[in-house]
Design a protein that fits this description.
The chain is globular, with a radius of gyration of 16 Å. It has one domain. The chain has a 4-stranded mixed sheet with strand order 1-2-4-3, with helices on one face. The chain is built from 3 helices and 4 strands.
Length: about 120
């Protein structure tokens, strides 16, 4: 699954790549991909476009949190709000929002894959 969502208040577009192998999809945005990355966040200093990739086969809360902190920090920096003790509350809210959005999208995809699985056709969902 690859989905984009927008965060209007920060003029940010986030592309979420959620698949067993994220290497090819992430390589479309970056030349320095290490094979079999568990997760990766890519950004550009001159754009408001971000790509976060997390492998479905090793999806973990810790990984989502880690990548969303990177993402929130870069979004804040790109809109001119550097990290500091006076801006960390806004960055924490953004990281929480991003983590919630990523978990919601991932859960929808996992539920869809589970219900479409050939063994599940015998069960009511």
């Amino acid at each position: 699954m690859i989905q984009e969502f927008v965060i209007p208040i920060y003029n940010a577009t986030v592309k979420f790549v959620f698949q067993d192998d994220i290497d090819d999809a992430m390589a479309n945005h970056c030349d320095d991909i290490i094979e079999n990355e568990e997760a990766l966040t890519i950004w550009w200093s001159d754009k408001h476009y971000y790509v976060i990739g997390i492998r479905t086969d090793i999806f973990k809360q810790q990984t989502v949190t880690h990548e969303c902190v990177h993402l929130a920090h870069r979004i804040m920096s790109n809109v001119g709000i550097p990290a500091s003790l006076t801006t960390d509350e806004a960055e924490a809210y953004l990281a929480g929002y991003l983590a919630g959005k990523i978990v919601d999208l991932a859960t929808e995809e996992m539920d869809k894959q589970f219900s479409e699985h050939r063994y599940m056709k015998n069960f009511m969902i």
